[in-house]
Amino acid sequence: MTDHTASLPGTDELRRRALDALRRVGASVPAGTGLSARSPITGETLLDLRADTADDVGRAVDEAAEAFATWRTTPPPVRGELVRVLGELLREHHGDLADLITIEAGKIRSEALGEIQEMIDICDLAVGMSRQLYGRSIASERPGHRLAETWHPLGVVGVISAFNFPAAVWSWNTAVALVCGDTVVWKPSELTPLISIAASRLLDRAIERTGAPAAVHRLLLAGRDGGEALVDDARVALLSATGSTRMGREVGPRVAARFGRSLLELGGNNASVVTPSADLEVTLPGIVFAAAGTAGQRCTTLRRLIVHRDVADEVVDRVAAAYARLNVGDPFDEKTLVGPLVNERAATAMATALDRAAADGGTIVAGGNRLGSGGGVFVEPALVRMPGQTAVVREETFAPILWVLTYDTFDEAVALHNDVPQGLSSSIFTRDQQEAERFLAADGSDCGIANVNIGTSGAEIGGAFGGEKETGGGRESGSDAWKAYMRRATNTINYSDRVALAQNVSFL
Ligand code: UN1
């Protein structure tokens, strides 16, 4: 791995780039105290910001609830127009938003641009959806009757998002919620306030341009107390939260206790099965991007490689060789493939996990060292052979560690694959159709995402995104995930001139 951390942009330079990008999108920063914008590239503070309080949360929800009263009856294609304009503004400011993501989340340029592309894509999809909010017509058992399903806006949607996809996950929720007739209150990660301000400002501009009610969207820059106020507010009909399983374990029951709905996107522990027939020209890039890309900080990051014993040495050698060529350093530099970890806590978690693995008999085959001497946390992605799926492997460590496990039979591979508490993303590399189909079958992968001959990360927005078990069960973005943002009414319509009771009941 090549250490490119010697020539990093300094904090003054990053602050200037951030302020330039914010100015271009027309956003201003609420100066004050309580929150700070920082960059993982230097580990230093860029700007001090005013944090919203629990009272501000209450006010934002008040306003969003009021806006809902008119937004819910606005025709869906008119609501779609707001999202269409947002998509246009995102195209116009693609580079500005990507700059902010690189500065605040440390993503390399190509991935930062990709995140904004994902926002544009969901806007396009949501605009189409705005003319497609369909319901079923269902056969009635009674003559002259019809059953129908209608879908109505739900109310205020609270969105709590994480640092690693600081803007795209907001847009999955917001673009879809808005066309569904909901209004949105967003509490982004405290680690990424600037990109949140910029994205929210673009939506405000789209609101101004289309004449939508101003409070269809509210941004809250708040810490934990602000998030808790949103979780506990009974007017928040749906709380969509992305983050750790630990966070979801708190949020889920609290929202349920007030009979609210929650949509949870929590931890993953994603694996790829590499079979003897796998085409290694396809497998290798798939593995390396999924495991080392985004410095291992996607919820879909590949964390476990389950390789057939016959090909394990070759696969490990080739992944190690590919790792040796990864440049780690300045995410603005086009040659860099691995940017910084988000903070010191992530570095500590990585180091602790590697120590635990060594104690379990694991062997570090490549990487694992800290690079550079500045305040940013740069690490070499680690490749670790493990004698078995020990406790540390079964936990999600949000850092670039790829655990390698070996198997002999296909059944053993699937059993190992599913023997973790999380269930987000999975894949199999094989040229054997039977193996591929078995991996996708009911007794194959137990994840919300199961792929063949591609890695675990980088899902398109057209499909539903989410996972099972401790990943929380929520589904966002494409397919019919919009239904989570609406309420269903079942209608029975009698168009005859007789009264007929269901189940043949006679009365009067
Ligand atoms: C996340 O890491 O929270 O599939 C979302 C992917 C991206 C989304 C990741 N489209 O990797």
From TrEMBL:
Residues 35-488 form the Aldehyde dehydrogenase domain. InterPro entries: Ald_DH/histidinol_DH (IPR016161), Ald_DH_C (IPR016163), Ald_DH_CS_GLU (IPR029510), Ald_DH_N (IPR016162), Aldehyde_DH_dom (IPR015590), ALDH7A1-like (IPR044638). Keywords: NAD, Oxidoreductase. It is an enzyme of class 1 (oxidoreductase). Its EC number is 1.2.1.3. The active site is at E265. Pfam families: Aldedh (PF00171). CDD domains: ALDH_F7_AASADH. Homotetramer. Belongs to the aldehyde dehydrogenase family. This is aldehyde dehydrogenase (NAD(+)). It comes from Pseudonocardia nematodicida.
